[in-house]
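Sharing a chain and its predicted structure for anyone who wants a worked example. Both blocks are below, sequence first, tokens second.
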Amino acid sequence: MANAIKRRELLKAAGIGAAGLAMPAWGQGPSARQQKQRPNILFIFSDDQRFDTIHALGNREIRTPNLDSLARRGVAFTQACIMGGTVGAVCVPSRGMLMTGQSLFHVHNNIIAPEKAPEGSRRPFDLFPELFRKAGYTTFGVGKWHNGPALYARCFGQGGPIMFGGMSDHLKVPIQDFDPTGRYPKERQRTGDKFSSELFSESAVRFLKEQKAGDPFLLYIAYTAPHDPRMPPTEYAGMYPAEKLMLPPNFMPEHPFDNGDLKTRDEQLAPWPRTPEVVRKHIAEYYGMITHMDAQIGRVLKALEETGRAGNTIIVFAGDNGLALGRHGLFGKQNVYDHSVRVPLIICGPGIPRGKTSDALVYLLDLFPTLCDLAGQPAPATVEGQSLAPLVRDPKAKVRDSVFFAYRNLQRAVRTDSWKLIHYTVEGKETTQLFNIPEDPWEMKNLAGNPAQAERVKQMTALLKDWMKKTDDPLLEAGG
């Protein structure tokens, strides 16, 4: 983010916009044929899927053949993450950051609580499907949308079924049919007649089959799986015997101290203290939901192949946030440990290397400028993310040296390639954690109190405050 801010300042001083730097993925500029045949975009988004839940990327217990195929066909970003959340429903700011390419506190002021934003803090913003729609793309959205009907209407010219609210049953999804006027009154809400992943996939398949050659399309599929209630269909529920699943090394019966949000809704999905039996059961159901969703993604990918347009389609698969599910004694995503802020991210398509991985520190909000670059489409100056196109071309490259995380006014964290510092402020009590990530990837050994690490704690704290300043963190302004 720091690099992005400096980049915008440099462009402003030079009198040009960020759009002037947009470059297509294939290198030195599009050929005449590529200019004429712009790539399609298929964006697949999962709900509450942790970063380490894809077989091809290291999880030997889970079965994800279609996601494995995408990983083999493109570049997987193994250190992708979100910036955190200003509210307990972390998916709301996560999806806002994805759509706008803006950082957490700007999204809060723009999308989540603009009516509470301080005077002058609201900023202009575009949304990435909206940008492509204005550029002549046919845009179709289906599935979960947690940023309000008005923004949905800006993004998509076609779509549905759409889930605007919460859900308590994957077999009874509260949905709305697409309305080109953008009005979605509560009385027109209905209940879906299929399991959520099947319902949304069938709509996407119909769209692909009805598309004719011509204008490029952007298809956005936002699944509600594997979000709870974790209720995989019978065939998938039996795939993972709970007693045979491994417990994560950082399983704990309870979190070792008050992080400020230990009793939130997600944390109440399992009793305290957490037991190995309960955690394994939840993991089994979680894996079943993901494998079922993977099968539905396979249906969409098959339909794309049958259209003959797969070769000119950029495919992105990502998750909106992670999930603890027993790690550190937690069950939800209302924290800044890696299990909750890191997400899966795969990009494949024309001009993108196959079977590569990148361990660069990247954000989901980087996808807006990335898609612009890959499609040869100018990115708006309102975008704060960094394009990952250089990493697509060279997976060993980097776009930033550190990343910043925040959760409400309770937790702040900063991470480099090797170190991560988390600072908690809960009812006046401050707690600090320091982890050596290469030696302790499960974040189990807190080194903050080690005298030998005193200087590192000081340096990481300074880096954290630098991030807070550059992202307009209100906690810094309040003296946090």
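Comments welcome. The first strand starts at residue 40 and ends at 46.
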